[in-house]
Amino acid sequence: MTPDEAMGRALELAADAAGWGDTPIGAVVLGPDGAVLAEAANERERDGDPTAHAEVLALRAAARVHGDGWRLTGCTLVVTLEPCTMCAGAAVLSRVGRVVYGAADPKAGAAGSLWDVVRDRRLNHRPQVQAGVREEECATLLRAFFRARRGL
């Protein structure tokens, strides 16, 4: 599966999250061969868990099936919104090879917008980053969710 195709699936997952009242963010982890290892949507509201971000849930699930313990070497994390500091840190610590995201997050993004955790030279692993994949679709979904939530 290509990152563009995986982003399509992440967008579907994000829409599901909006259905249960969570911020519409979806994530897919691709194995080194491009096969889907895991996928998730935000579940903070559903589970009452502040760490239940789509990226963290997908990385956890991928680690259970990848076969190299917790290391996701050669894998790609595809997510609809630029990862926050927690999720960017999880990407680094899981050793993913690449982070692909759709919409930038100028308020909390940690893959180049506000911070750049994933490429911090002080860390022992730095995934490649590809930004802007299906960016407008990702941003539109988020904007619609927050407009509805604010009654605009």
From TrEMBL:
Keywords linked to the UniProt accession: Hydrolase, Metal-binding, tRNA processing, Zinc
EC category name: hydrolase
KW Nucleotidyltransferase (keyword) present: no
PROSITE patterns, per the entry: CYT_DCMP_DEAMINASES_2 (PS51747)
Biological processes annotated in GO: tRNA wobble adenosine to inosine editing
Subunit: Homodimer.
The protein's name: tRNA-specific adenosine deaminase
Protein species of origin: Klenkia taihuensis
